[in-house]
Automatic annotation (TrEMBL):
Gene Ontology terms for molecular function: fructose 6-phosphate aldolase activity; fructose-1-phosphatase activity; metal ion binding
Name of the protein: Sugar phosphate phosphatase
Keyword Metal-binding: yes
This protein's UniProt keywords: Hydrolase, Manganese, Metal-binding
EC number: 3.1.3.-
GO cellular component: nucleus
Function: Metal-dependent phosphatase that shows phosphatase activity against several substrates, including fructose-1-phosphate and fructose-6-phosphate. Its preference for fructose-1-phosphate, a strong glycating agent that causes DNA damage rather than a canonical yeast metabolite, suggests a damage-control function in hexose phosphate metabolism.
Catalysed reactions listed for this entry: beta-D-fructose 1-phosphate + H2O = D-fructose + phosphate; beta-D-fructose 6-phosphate = dihydroxyacetone + D-glyceraldehyde 3-phosphate
Domain Damage-control phosphatase ARMT1-like metal-binding: 26-424
Top-level taxon in the UniProt lineage: Eukaryota
Organism: Talaromyces amestolkiae
Domain notes: Subfamily III proteins have a conserved RTxK motif about 40-50 residues from the C-terminus; the threonine may be replaced by serine or cysteine.
Coiled coil (residue ranges): none
Enzyme class: hydrolase
Length: 450
């Protein structure tokens, strides 16, 4: 185990050859299934009655290339330079691969290998004529979202009743209730990839102002193994007088989680926490379910449909508010090529200095999901008691970046656990590192960059 005082460059990254690791399981089992899913999706799309013959014929070559990619993973072939697909980033990908040296699918840095796989899929599509803008994961994203119907309708009801119809944040003398509402809304964003609302406190307006509300919140936080929510609230209270309070949210998944993120953005504006919110999306399909620009439009298309969401009473009240936030520019979307590279965020200052400067200026940067957390911490094999600030490296101390990570644990890295005794207790409660892998535990980690 590396020391918590080690330089971040010296901390070993997780490799797919790591025995017993999530990285190894993912490379051996999940990656081939993902590729097969893309092959099946292309096949189904090409078989549609309205597809032009040239596009249908071209799909055959795409499926052959994807099958070759899948076989390479299954047979543990070496990672080879990406073929030129006309995009400017290919040279950098191949330079990074050369710097890693000889490696294969089952023996490579997990973060690089996984990003390389998704860039390989996109390279195959980029090299085509008719499929360049095709999202191979869209059908999966849409079908998953529709299955979350009950959760979407319930959250719309709760939002309109608690936040919109009762502007608690604007009432004097209700500081504790405001704080509890902030905590619950943040937890909704945290657990946004789980449509089981039993994870949440489900508070009424009256609950938020009572002992029952505090108890419910405390119970809901049991599985948050690093919880800096008090520090976040203190920072927000201390800086509430700032004229410009732009919050940046680095999004993770489309579908239900995107709905919770947009709802969270609306809450931050309704509550006066933020003066504007900027949502960061990926430029092309990434890690199956990550948000791309068309996913924003798709979200509202589905939400506006009474066919997909028949209990439309509260959605009909909520949607005009959300539409207006986007129309007015209070909520905007942006993308940056850096988000779809294999670089950790430790390399942001040198690889994307303009993006780094933008985040420095942000009132608060909220990083969603497991992949972003892995990139924040350089996907390193840190001792779990390493502080979040140290694991952030260049984005930590004196960086000027106020960064909040909302992440359910689904990989091999997790820092910020206060004591080794707590680590031992978690290992006993959820053996075989389940507490950092099964998605039932989470972190709310905050660093002010001072």
């Amino acid at each position: 185990m590396p020391s918590t005082t080690m330089n971040t460059e010296e901390v070993r990254a997780v490799w797919t050859s790591e025995k017993g690791s999530m990285a190894k399981q993912t490379a051996e089992n999940r990656w081939p299934k993902i590729i097969q899913g893309t092959i099946d999706g292309i096949c189904e799309a090409a078989a549609a009655g309205d597809v032009e013959e040239q596009k249908r014929v071209e799909s055959i070559a795409i499926r052959i290339a994807l099958k070759h990619l899948k076989q390479g993973i299954e047979q543990n072939k070496p990672l080879t330079p990406l073929q030129d697909d006309g995009k400017l980033d290919i040279q950098q990908w191949n330079k990074q691969l050369a710097e890693i040296g000889e490696c294969s699918w089952a023996n490579c840095p997990w973060l690089f290998g996984e990003c390389y796989m998704y860039r390989s899929i996109q390279s195959i599509l980029n090299s085509s004529k008719h499929w360049q803008n095709y999202d191979v994961f869209k059908r999966q994203k849409d079908s998953t979202f529709v299955k979350s119907r009950a959760a979407v309708e319930e959250l719309a009801r709760r939002y309109m009743q608690i936040v919109a119809d009762n502007p608690l944040a604007q009432k004097e003398g209700k500081e504790e209730a405001k704080k509890l509402l902030f905590i619950e809304m943040t937890e909704i964003a945290l657990w946004g990839n789980a449509t089981d609302l039993s994870l949440l406190a489900n508070l009424t307006l009256e609950d938020l102002q009572s002992l029952q509300g505090r108890d419910a919140i405390r119970k809901s936080q049991r599985n948050i193994v690093d919880n800096d929510i008090e520090d976040v609230w203190a920072y927000l209270q201390r800086t509430t007088g700032q004229a410009s309070r732009q919050i940046d949210i680095i999004l993770d998944n489309a579908g239900f989680e995107l709905f919770t993120d947009v709802l969270y953005a609306a809450y931050l504006l309704d509550a006066g926490v933020a003066t504007s919110v900027r949502l960061h999306v990926k430029e092309f399909p990434w890690f199956v379910s990550d948000v791309t620009p068309p996913d924003i439009e798709s979200l509202f298309y589905h939400l506006d449909s009474s066919e997909y969401f028949p209990r439309h009473e509260y959605l009909e009240q909520l949607l005009p508010r959300l539409h207006e936030y986007f129309r007015s520019g209070a909520i905007t979307t942006t993308s940056d090529p850096f988000w779809t590279t294999a670089f950790s965020f430790h390399e942001m200052l040198s690889r994307a200095p303009a993006l780094f400067e933008e985040l420095q200026k942000s009132y608060l940067v909220i990083s969603k999901g497991d992949l972003n957390y892995r990139k924040l911490t350089r996907d390193g094999m840190w001792p779990h008691t390493t502080t979040y600030e140290e694991a952030l490296g260049p984005l930590g101390r004196q960086s000027g970046v106020k960064i909040l990570a909302l992440r359910t644990n689904k990989s091999d890295v997790c820092v910020g656990i206060q004591t080794q005794a707590k680590v031992d207790a978690l290992d006993e409660e959820a053996p075989d590192s389940a507490w950092i892998r099964n998605g039932k535990y989470a972190v709310i980690s905050f660093n002010e960059g001072k």
